[in-house]
Amino acid sequence: MEAIGRGQGGGAAYGGAMDERYLDDVVAILPPLLQALDRLGFLARYFDPAHYGELLAAVGAPEVTLAALRPRLAVWPEPLADARAALATAADATLAAYAGLRAAPDNLDGMTPVFRALREQPRALEALYPLSRALPPVSRFFLDPARRDDAELSAALMGAAPPPDTGVLHGGGEPGARGGWSAYVPETYSPDRAWPVVFALHGGSGNGRDFLWSWLREARTWGAIVVAPTAVGRTWALQGDDADTPNLAAILDVVRTRWTIDPTRMLLSGMSDGGTFSYVSGLEPASPFTHLAPAAAAFHPMMAAFADRERLLGLPIHIAHGARDWMFPVDMAREAADALARAGADVTYRELDDLSHAFPRELNGGILAWMARTASGRGE
To answer: What is the DSSP letter of 16?
Structure first.
């Protein structure tokens, strides 16, 4: 294993080669930790209240091995304190997630405990990510599976220290605060080229700090800047006064100032309420976004009927929805695709037979490729 050093953009300091004893601890705990996190991602992707017991059975019990190995992180020397803390925090958050998932069927609050338990996953990913520059298995974990064996990409991500203002960043107050934002800028960033930007809007009870991790792996792999704002109110402004659209514009101004953005590849995407708001805000005549990609979103035909015709004409819109969505029936998405196409939008519709009301993360890489193919003079 490589010596561990300080990295910019969120890297931790470990200073020098790791003692063999603690190297053995890392080698022991990383596989079960990464496997347990991978299984959490599987559960989040396929979550369906009607089949929760079957899903838990399919996930198995990867936390058992992780819990047995957790004591190996108890005491490490001071030079390795940050590495130990990162692994311990990630392990503890993962174990808390599984404890909540196991207890959920006996809870009187229905499936609310499942969502609460799954919120531990972003905490674990946030703690673990700084180790991606030092530990190859962690770096591979934060890549699209299609490119995990790409030696050139791995070398670029784990090579020289990345430029300042890259990695995981936060703005607008405490991470996850109302009206604030979190972002990921690839460590391969260079101001000499224009980068696509994805504004990823969380679901109704979420926040940008957590939802960022729904896009980071693909952005790191394929080269995109992701900005995950948090709604000004309890959820996005789907009715009444709209404080969120001006806030998105203000955040975009900050992003354009700090990084080189491709004006023809600016995506407004979102999940559930965030997807619905990507319609509401993204169809506004003055919207700066060149592409829209709502997922698991609600839609009313009036959105298309009242949208500005010039704005809609040729606007690339990627709609993704699950055939098993239990919150917003799939007919809403089908109707959205038909209505928006009739109004002149360039609609791509993806209906996933095995998707419930969840974010189809496996489409992210394809959405970035779709955005590149459909980029035009919009936004210039």
So the answer is: S
List, for residues 310-331, the tens digit of each pLDDT value: 999 999 999 999 999 999 999 9
CATH superfamily of 151-374: Alpha/Beta hydrolase fold, catalytic domain (3.40.50.1820)
Q: Which of left, alpha, beta for 49 (phi over 0: left; psi -120 to 50: alpha)? A: alpha
d(CA 84, CA 76): 7
pLDDT tens profile 164-191: 999 999 999 899 999 999 999 999 999 9
Token pair 């960022």: residue: 212
Please calculate the CA angle 161-362-60 and round it to the nearest 5 degrees. 95
| 39 contact partners, CB below 8 Å, separation of at least 6 | 59, 60, 62
Q: In this structure, what is the dihedral angle of CA atoms 28, 32, 35, 36, given to the nearest 10 degrees? A: -150
Sheet holding 261-271, edge to edge: 167-171, 181-185, 225-229, 195-201, 261-271, 291-295, 316-322, 346-352
Residue environment code for 332-369, b if the CB has 16+ CB neighbours within 10 A, otherwise e:
bbeebbebbbebbbbbbbbebeebbbbbbbebbbebbe
User: What's the pLDDT tens digit per position in 94-123?
Assistant: 999 999 999 988 776 677 889 999 999 999
For residues 36 and 66, the answer to whether their CB atoms sit within 8 Å is yes
- Please give the structure tokens belonging to residue 247: 């806030």
For 297-363, the DSSP string reads: ----HHHHHHS-HHHHTT-EEEEEEETT-SSS-HHHHHHHHHHHHHTT-EEEEEEETT--SS--GGG
Task: Tell me how many degrees the CA angle 242-248-254 measures, rounded to the nearest 5.
Answer: 145
